[in-house]
Each structure stands twice: as structure tokens, then as C-alpha cells.
Automatic annotation (TrEMBL):
Belongs to the adenylate kinase family. AK3 subfamily. HAMAP family: Adenylate_kinase_Adk (MF_00235), Adenylate_kinase_AK3 (MF_03169), Adenylate_kinase_AK4 (MF_03170). Transmembrane segments: none annotated. It comes from Notechis scutatus. This is Adenylate kinase 4, mitochondrial. NCBIfam families: adk.
Length: 223
């Protein structure tokens, strides 16, 4: 069990490898990994009010509105007030960051800076199962049968905003929303940025940074 109630965030554009980095941090340091994307997928699959509202926006390639994602994440954070945690995909906007400020003080913010061409290649290889939101990457995480969801056997689709011609606009949209968030955390002295094209090469530097904040787990699995 981690010895300090660390409050950390990993920021990065779509396709930057946030999920992989967060999983490694959570396992190595015993932090609870809270993925806004995972919670959204679960709510979409359950046809909850939040899930239905989020689905309408995601299918159009739009960001989920601040009030929807904030409500979702605050509900999850209330459940783990006595645990150290790591946020993945939240906050994405200044409004979300300000809402987070009202309930906690962050200790560490990690930003992943990945070149545009790398992001474009990763996103263009991404396909989803629309009913559940499950994501596949044809290079790194392909389905067992090409074009078919592993669990339901239903066909996969490529979102309009994952197609090469739409990726540039999507990344610009993310950058515009994230810029004031980055500035906020930079001014507080808690933002640490890592650049590269391969998660495996970035990871040792991230590990060293987090090790300076909290001791790593001795066990192989995070508690």
C-alpha cells in the first residue's frame, strides 16, 4: 500500500499513451487508477443517464461536456478519499481543473508530449466497438478477428475523428482546451513534461520522477 495519499494526474492528447503510463504507475506505486475513458465506457455500456449523454457527443467526435465528465469523476473520487490516486484523461479543460481544485490539492501532474505524426499514426490505426466504447489498435492491440469485437462478435468501426483527415483538427481541439490547464499547473510548479515517440523510452523517466514523490511497491502487483 502506498504510504502517502498522492494526488496525481497524467495529461496528454489522444493517442499519447496515457493509459499505458497510468497502468504502469498504478502497478508500480500502488495508486488507484481512475480513467475517465473507462468510466465513460462503463456508463455507455450500462445505458446510464451519463452514458447516453456522453455517447451522443462521442459519436460526433466531440468532447464530453465539462459538467458531465466532472460529475462522473467527482462521484468516483468521493469513493476513494482515503486512497492515493492517479487521474487519466481528467481534467482536460480549465473548468474541469477548477472543479478538481475545490476538492483536493494535486501533488504531481505529468504531461506526455508526443509528435504529431506519431499521434496521427496511432489514432488512424484505432477502431472501436460503438455500443460499448471498447477501443482496439490494429498495430498494438488488435481484435482476435479482424474488424470484429472480441466480446460481442459485432463489427468494429473507425470513428470519423480517428480518420487521418480529421486527426489534425481533433488534436488542435485538444491542444486549445489543454493549454490553460498546462499553464495552471506549470505556474504551481507541479507540471513535469516528457517528450518522445515510444512509451517504453519515456517510462524510465516517469518512474524516476514518481519515485521521488512516493516509494515504489515491493510487490509485483499494486494493492
Amino acid at each position: 500500500m502506498a504510504s502517502k495519499l498522492l494526488r496525481a494526474v497524467v495529461l496528454g492528447p489522444p493517442g499519447s499513451g496515457k493509459g499505458t503510463v497510468c497502468e504502469r504507475i498504478a502497478k508500480s506505486f500502488g495508486l488507484k487508477h481512475l480513467s475517465s475513458g473507462q468510466f465513460l465506457r462503463e456508463n455507455i455500456a450500462a445505458n446510464s443517464d451519463i452514458g447516453l449523454l456522453a455517447k451522443q457527443h462521442l459519436e460526433k467526435g466531440l468532447l464530453v461536456p465539462d459538467h458531465v465528465i466532472t460529475r462522473l469523476m467527482m462521484t468516483e473520487l468521493e469513493k476513494i478519499q482515503t486512497q492515493p490516486w492517479l487521474l487519466d484523461g481528467f481534467p482536460r479543460t480549465l473548468g474541469q481543473a477548477e472543479s478538481l481544485d475545490r476538492i483536493c490539492e494535486l501533488d504531481l501532474v505529468i504531461s506526455l508530449n508526443i509528435p504529431f505524426e506519431t499521434l496521427k499514426d496511432r489514432l488512424s490505426a484505432r477502431w472501436i466497438h460503438p455500443a460499448s466504447g471498447r477501443v482496439y489498435n490494429m498495430e498494438f492491440n488488435p481484435p482476435q478477428i479482424h474488424g470484429i469485437d472480441d466480446i460481442t462478435g459485432e463489427p468494429l468501426i473507425q470513428r470519423e475523428d480517428d480518420k487521418p483527415e480529421a486527426v489534425a483538427a481533433r488534436l488542435r481541439k485538444y491542444k486549445d482546451a489543454a493549454k490553460p490547464v498546462m499553464e495552471l499547473y506549470k505556474n504551481r510548479g507541479i507540471l513535469h513534461s516528457f517528450s518522445g515517440t515510444e512509451t517504453n523510452k519515456i517510462w524510465p523517466y516517469v518512474y524516476t520522477l514518481v519515485s521521488n514523490k512516493i516509494p515504489p511497491n515491493q510487490a509485483e502487483e499494486a494493492n
